[in-house]
Write a structure and sequence with these properties.
The structure is a single chain. This protein is of the alpha/beta class and 339 residues long. It has a domain of 209 residues: NAD(P)-binding Rossmann-like Domain (Rossmann fold), CATH 3.40.50. Helices cover 39% and strands 17% of the residues. It contains eleven helices and 14 strands. Strands 3-2-1-4-5-6-11 form a seven-stranded parallel β-sheet, sandwiched between helices. Helix 1 packs parallel to helix 2, helix 1 packs across helix 8 and helix 5 packs parallel to helix 6. The structure holds nicotinamide-adenine-dinucleotide (NAD) and uridine-diphosphate-N-acetylglucosamine. Uridine-diphosphate-N-acetylglucosamine (UD1) binds next to helix 7 and strand 8.
């Protein structure tokens, strides 16, 4: 029988692209989302693009009764857990909401999985757990440290999984540390639409390019990087989604707890990203230098060797595709899924 994957947060940015990838690789998918940071239309688009229907449960991952119903009715064999809040700045303003959603959500999910005997989980972690790196590129064994409530929910989530596995070695747990996902589906119909002013760089640049904002604010040009601006490992959302399907291979190995970086291994600076998107959009995108954003680090990029060797996964798409697809999504959907 085909595997049935429960995707929590499946309507969100990474979730919707991963649902599409799962369907295209012949998996049965069930989505649970409360649409707190997404629009039901993303799932409609996934259905249209794949020509496949799948059950969608509108509800909260903290609702154990609902989870029990889903596991029983759908015969779920594995879970990819995306549901949670992700805004670093906001997490410092409403920390309790972050701990509640990100940690109670994970705990309730694990409790129900334990009670129904489903032991296969992929957990969305973040390169933010590496803090300010002492050495680059980052391998999975680099020291961990976090500086804000969002980051702490991710690190605590990882620790919960390590404790669970130490207590019961029959679990199959995969922790994926994402670097900076950007871009959109090549169709231009599926992408990310941040609410309000984007805090991430690429959505901000594309909003400037299409005239929604005046200029890009470059947060600092005096870092110890080649051009003085911050360097990050941007990864195409399709590559990231494929990384989840590749990580499911670990579920077939019996049991274990493994951690993988999902990044390209290549860092780009803020100015390189502005140049890349200027080329794609066929216009000079204006920017101004601002002071550093508190909490930012100079540079962060992955050593993706472990995922390549153990999962047979590596990023296929480069800066050109990331920019082209990000720009196409922005141009076709200036109001996200509201159009
Ligand atoms: P997103 O906000 O687009 O998606 C999260 C989805 O979860 C949304 O559809 C939201 O409605 C849903 N959700 C939130 N709380 C819920 C709850 N209690 N019950 C049910 N649904 C709920 O975010 P994303 O960018 O797709 O990120 C997915 C995961 O990856 C998150 O856990 C995030 O922390 C992690 N992550 C994201 C990034 C990134 O740059 N996007 C980087 C590292 C890690
Ligand atoms: C941020 C989060 C991180 C999260 C990641 C992906 C912080 C401190 N970290 O990472 O936890 O996992 O997003 O969602 O918020 N920049 C500008 N102008 C802008 C926006 C950003 O110059 O308007 C610069 C930043 O200083 C940085 C780079 O662009 O050098 C990338 O920033 P961003 O997209 O916010 O990602 P991160 O800071 O890496």
């Amino acid at each position: 029988m085909a595997e049935t994957i429960l995707v929590t947060g499946g309507a969100g940015y990474i979730g919707s692209h991963t649902v599409l990838e799962l369907l295209e690789t012949s998996h049965r998918v069930v989505v649970l989302d409360n649409f707190s940071n997404s629009h039901p239309k993303s799932l409609e688009v996934v259905k249209e693009l794949t020509g496949q229907a799948f059950p969608v449960y509108v509800g909260d991952v903290r609702d154990k009764g609902l989870l029990e119903q889903i596991f029983q009715k759908e015969e779920v064999t594995g879970v990819i857990h995306f549901a949670g809040f992700k805004a670093v700045g906001e997490s410092s303003q409403i920390p309790l909401a972050y701990y509640d959603n990100n940690l109670v959500g994970l705990l309730h999910l694990l409790e129900v999985m334990q009670s129904v005997g489903c032991r296969n989980l992929i957990f969305s972690s973040s390169a933010t757990v590496y803090g300010d790196p002492q050495e680059l590129p980052l391998t999975e064994t680099a020291p961990l440290s976090v500086t804000n409530p969002y980051g702490r929910t991710k690190l605590m989530g990882e620790e919960i999984l390590r404790d669970l596995f130490a207590a019961d070695g029959s679990w199959n747990l995969v922790i994926l540390r994402y670097f900076n996902p950007i871009g959109a589906h090549p169709s231009g119909r599926l992408g990310e639409h941040p609410q309000g002013i984007p805090s991430n760089l690429v959505p901000y640049i594309t909003q400037v390019a299409c005239g929604l904002r005046d200029h890009v604010r470059v947060f600092g040009d005096n870092y110890a990087t080649p051009d003085g601006t911050g360097v990050r490992d941007y990864i195409h959302i399709q590559d990231l989604s494929r990384g989840h399907v590749a990580a499911m291979k670990r579920w077939a190995t019996g049991s274990g707890l493994s951690v993988y970086n999902l990044g390209t291994g290549q860092g780009y600076s803020v100015l390189e990203m502005i140049r890349g998107l200027s080329q794609t959009a066929g216009q000079e995108i204006p920017y101004q230098i601002y002071s550093r954003r508190p909490g930012d680090i100079a540079a962060c990029y992955a050593d993706p060797t472990k995922a390549r060797e153990e999962l047979g996964w590596e990023a296929q798409l480069g800066l050109e595709e990331m920019c082209r697809h990000a720009w196409k999504w922005q141009r076709l959907n200036p109001n996200g899924f509201q159009d």
